Amino acid sequence: MLPCCRPADVSVCDSELGPPGWREPLDCVRASELCNQNNQCSSRYRIMRQCLSGGDKERSAMLASRECQGALEVLQDSPLYDCRCKRNMKKELQCLQNYWSIHMGLTEGEEFYETSPYEPIHFSEEFRHASIISGRRMSPCSEAGKPCNPCLDAAKACNLNETCKRLRSAYNSICSKATPPQATSANQEPCSRKRCQKALRQFFERVSWELSYPLLFCSCPDQACAERRRRTIVPSCSHQERHKPSCLELRRTCRSDALCRSRLADFHMNCQMTPHSVTSCPHDNFHGCLMSYVGLIGSDVTPNYSDSSPSNISIGLWCSCRGTGAQEAECDTFHRDFTHNTCLSESTDAKEKPAEVTADRDLLQQQIAANANRILQRCINTPSFC
């Protein structure tokens, strides 16, 4: 699977894809195979899977046991500890389950933000994507006398591509199909939500982002356009319920699923605001944040536009922090990662107006270097800052 790996070096292998000196992590499917070839690792791996079975209370008690702690200690020296997964790889779910078979034991009930199981999005890759976005931008707003509707342009571009048109029609059909009347009840969903979410994931995983992103992040001249943009992912079926659930309950549901848990951790890692960058995004990587945001669509934690405002764009989750009592502060922190996230808002704004942010790669690199120097000087002058 990774031919450059040597038996003596099972955690990482050299890669020509990343920057000089970077080593590509072993994927967790291969890491599991290597672990199963070793009797000690294999036996501890089986024990660890048993430790993580059952409900939250049972799992916490099991993880505290001497046997589970011993298994975890051995596995931290195995290929599984440093393994990672590729986005949309063939055995992605299996890879992610293997990753959490160790890391869920390390973080259960302790960390608000978890480390992403996915390989990092490299800086050079972000610049390459940004240049493609800038080069492909064909907004009618730039042509005098012609109507200005980038969202309509995005829909037309999708319809001209066979894969985009087919998968977009597929998810719209599935997500718009009502549940048969005889099968409905007071607590039942008005559509097949799981099928809708799966169809949405397939669209964003299989359609080139050059075609899918403009559908989500196009700029709108009026409220009617903004409402159509909000309905792009068919919110009435994909994530909205009759009553808004608690945001903490939404997070708990997400973390019980390996795929959703991974996408949420990836979002937090790539979109978490930081003061140590020009753009407030980690490593000034707009595209990394956008990729992680889109990765959540079709999960239990599906973000979307909060309203139909064409100018004051607000993004959030379909959940509430009312009635969370002593956990209200924790709930608000989680919700504000979407509603008050400068990195996320700047990323979506950069997608709409890429030339303002990414037109000149050298200029952005100079800004980042200057910012790094400013932070270094502040660290020297005020050690407590660092």
UniProtKB/TrEMBL annotation:
The organism of origin for this protein: Amphiprion percula
GO terms under cellular component: external side of plasma membrane; receptor complex
Topological category with respect to the lipid bilayer: Lipid-anchor; GPI-anchor
Keywords: Cell membrane, Glycoprotein, GPI-anchor, Lipoprotein, Membrane, Receptor, Signal
InterPro entries, alphabetized: GDNF/GAS1, GDNF_alpha, GDNF_rcpt
Biological process, per Gene Ontology: cell surface receptor protein tyrosine kinase signaling pathway; nervous system development
Name assigned to this protein: GDNF family receptor alpha 2
GDNF/GAS1 domain mapped to chain residues: 28-107, 151-237, 247-343
Family in the record: Belongs to the GDNFR family.
SUPFAM superfamilies linked: GDNF receptor-like
SMART domains on file: GDNF
